[in-house]
Give the backbone structure.
Amino acid sequence: MHEFQYRQNELYCEDVPVKTIAKEVGTPFYLYSAKTLLNHYRAYDSAFASIPHIITFAMKANSNLAILRLFAREGGGADIVSAGELYRALQAGVDPQKINFAGVGKTAEEIRYALESNILMFNVESSQELRKIDEVAGRMKKKARVALRVNPNVDPKTHPYISTGLKKHKFGISIDKALEEYKLAASLKHIEVVGIHQHIGSQLTETAPYVDALRRLLGLVEELKKLGIDVQYVNIGGGLGITYDDETPPLPKELATAIGPLVKDLKCILIMEPGRALVGNAGILVTKVLYTKEGDAKKFVIVDAAMNDLIRPSFYGAFHLIQPVIRRERKPITADVVGPICESADFLAKDREMEECLPEEYLAVMSAGAYGFAMASNYNARPRVPEILVNGDRYFTVRDRETHADLIKGEHIPDFLK
Ligand SMILES: *Cc1c(COP(=O)(O)O)cnc(C)c1O
């Protein structure tokens, strides 16, 4: 359940009318609900209350400092994929001992920064990376804690979903080779093997893939024990889906029910890395209708937000529900909702059955809290939009709208052109 609801035909975020914010900050903007973020975090946290666990928010989904702080205050950590994310997490006050570092391409510089910051562990994706971490840690006279990211190769035929855990993907170490890699890891002087990691995909709408993958992973944990390698952390990744349209993904509680029996006697700390499930439905993108246009074949609703603000529809063909901020009696239409960018791929909705809208009215693009602002760019020299956080009956600008000066920050015209 989220906190973007209508009261007498007017859309509210918690106790603040969306229209009030739109009038005051201008459009477009991202709008988040603190209460929804908290509810989502606590739903996860309490579902796993009986199992020792750490929730490391996959901050690539939304790395706003205020949101990171909100989860950190609840005891959450961060799953990072770059030095920049580490910097953000530390700035937000995330406990380094609750930070894990994922990704197939960590540079020596990033590894050094992470070791210096004393993060919880690296989730390692290849033997070359393992050796690199060993080398950097050696130079620093440190020991690096690592988990290996294992690719459980869960059969997508039984579970059709967006997947990262298959042999053909660039991620992780194949489960057949994992034992060898663990032996290598255990032999390296500046590596301490502490965990095992998997992340099988995103927007999962069933628990079965988690159960399948975890079974495979735990089989490996048993074999590792026989080799004298005792993992203390079992990381099941993120990927729990949310409702964009009519999906019915499992709740964290259902996930806990499904995997609880597998992990309850493990004596390990469970790590989870939800991204989308925490923030997706805690945010919307508010935009204004500029024009409507009747093409030869189609109707268009032209709005002031574009693919640079929210790229998911053009990038993944993703569906986002679009609702009017003020509801009234309207004629149904089928239209493309498009932005001002000079690309045919610049749309927020295609052939959408919606209600007729008029210039100047506000629309809410729902479920935009994950991979929304985080993937925004300055394409077409469009300043990135502000991010607003509502808490009860008040709202706070947690990121300013960029200015034209921001757009050219760091650029130089060389002398020979002066
Ligand atoms: C992207 C990612 C996540 C989060 O995925 P969601 O689908 O947003 O929950 C977690 N772990 C890793 C390693 C990832 O790459």
Remarks:
- The chain has two domains: 4-32+280-407, 34-277.
- The two ends are 58 Å apart (CA to CA).
